[in-house]
Amino acid sequence: GAVVSQHPSWVICKSGTSVKIECRSLDFQATTMFWYRQFPKQSLMLMATSNEGSKATYEQGVEKDKFLINHASLTLSTLTVTSAHPEDSSFYICSAREGRVTREQYFGPGTRLTVT
Amino acid sequence: QQQVKQSPQSLIVQKGGISIINCAYENTAFDYFPWYQQFPGKGPALLIAIRPDVSEKKEGRFTISFNKSAKQFSLHIMDSQPGDSATYFCAASRRQREGGGADGLTFGKGTHLIIQP
Known about the structure:
The structure holds two protein chains of two kinds.
Chain A: E1 4-7, E2 10-13, E3 19-25, E4 32-38, E5 44-51, E6 57-58, E7 67-73, E8 76-81, E9 90-97, E10 106-107, E11 111-115
Parallel strand pairs in A: 2-11
Antiparallel strand pairs in A: 1-3, 3-8, 4-5, 4-9, 5-6, 7-8, 9-10, 9-11
Chain B: E1 4-7, E2 10-14, E3 19-25, E4 33-38, E5 45-50, E6 56-59, E7 62-67, E8 72-77, E9 86-92, E10 106-107, E11 111-116
Parallel strand pairs in B: 2-11
Antiparallel strand pairs in B: 1-3, 3-8, 4-5, 4-9, 6-7, 7-8, 9-10, 9-11
């Protein structure tokens, strides 16, 4: 149980274009989903928190107009990187939590974004 | 400000030995402390987690020791195996105020563990 998937697993796009990444909880309903970013050989940094049906809460320093997050259902959250630039190239990982009481976060396999 | 400090950065342990990774936190509002294992190119996998009301938790070969007064916690991997070679992250989170769910996780910088056969 507690399986989270992401799609695509990797994507290459040209500078200035937009890319959408999907995060799905496969066997549970995710009240809250989180988006993290990880640079090579570095730690994970929280970007934003999204609760189903509500606007996402962004961490300090994360541009909300650049990283659009939508949590339209209890099993799906999307992250859209708008007007991507090479510095946006990174490993984007989502996690999901079931309910508001449980604390366990289960992570997806990540999406490698390369902007050329 | 790094809220969760993890050490060592890298660790080499012989097969069958005990791997020990340490973390220290600063924010006393943290009340949930998980450990994650990550293989290259993969997402982190939850190993074990602890709340501050207990001093130790064991699951199989993995044990968390927690010292609330010192604001430190550690992961012990007993009988370490080559398949345990990975990057390990400690993390912490706090419950949001006003009845909301918990915050996202604050991660340590990670420990690259190598188990030599």
